[in-house]
Amino acid sequence: MLVQILASDNVQLNDFIQLSCLVGILTLGLAHGAIDDILYKKNNDSINKTDFILKYLVAILSYFGLWILVPNAALILFLLLSGYHFGQAQFAIYNFRSNKTNKLLNTSWGMMIILLLFYFNKELLLESASFFPAIPTSLSWMLLNSTSLLAISCIVFCSVILDKYFKKEIKGEAILFEIFLIGLTTFSFKLFDPFISFSLFFIIIHSIETLTHEFDYFKTSLGIKKLRNFIKSLIPFTVISVIGIGLILTMMSYFGYYNYLPFVILILISSITAPHSFIMNEFYSSELKSNSN
């Protein structure tokens, strides 16, 4: 009886955590990309909101087309863009000088996160990749080779971060903090299932960090110092995104394409990530130039 009660409690707790993660993704996760139009105007003053939305939609449709033509390349490019974007947000607070090594640092750090997720959930993700139709074979290849790819990412990251340490671009305390953060993320990937563990990283470490950078920009460059005004600017596109995703998934369920949901979700996320990562790269690059002047 006690075992049954504990098992029931664990199931309920797991469901609650998964629901909380989903809410976090649909709020903070989507919100961190909900002001791309405002950030884009930082270096493109003449563009209006309508033109921006059209360009954004063209970029999304173009990436969708890439999935149709070369799905394996689309998946690998998505993971590389995501890795670079994760790393760039993580190291944005440091005024690193070398742009070339910055790209290596950002990509290697972000790919370490992704590959750690793959490494600790290899069997489960391989089973899912084989069960659900249309998932590109490149995912299985990356999962099977996650150990080697993770080792390469670690070597590149350690080499670049040590180079920056010896050039006095980053302090030892900051390196120890990054190592601690990677260790904490590793523990999460090992302890929880893939959805929960990655959601915790995406929401707490990535999205909140990015939102902090965006709010700092609002305060220093746009004169918007109140948090509630910043939150108001996040709401329109966050709500539109939630409704759009909800409609697509509802239609998929209605017509019985349940098995294709993971593939469609992957396409949706990657097609939105592509323009978002390029806009954030431009934003962070211009912020770095402003801080160095």
Give a description of the structure.
There is one protein chain. The chain has 293 residues and is mainly alpha-helical. It has one domain (49-292). The chain is built from twelve helices and no strands. Helix 1 (2-31) packs across helix 11 (227-254). The chain is globular.
Give the helices and strands, then pairings.
Blueprint lengths: L1 H30 L4 H5 L8 H21 L1 H20 L8 H22 L1 H10 L5 H8 L1 H21 L5 H20 L2 H28 L5 H28 L6 H32 L1
Q: Structural class of the helices, strands and pairings? A: mainly alpha
Sheet of most strands:
none
Helical content (DSSP H or I, runs of 4+) = over 70%
Please work out how many helical segments DSSP would assign: 12
Summed over residues and divided by their number, the pLDDT gives a mean of: 90
Low-confidence stretches: 1-8
Number of domains: 1
> What does the radius of gyration come to?
20 Å
Strand content of the residues, in percent? under 5%
Q: Using DSSP, what is the number of strands?
A: 0
- Label the overall shape: globular
What is the N-to-C order of secondary-structure elements (H for helix, E for strand)? HHHHHHHHHHHH
Distance between the termini: 68 Å
Q: How would you concisely characterize the structure shown here?
A:
By secondary structure, this protein is an all-alpha fold.
State the main characteristics.
293 residues, mainly alpha, 84% helix, globular
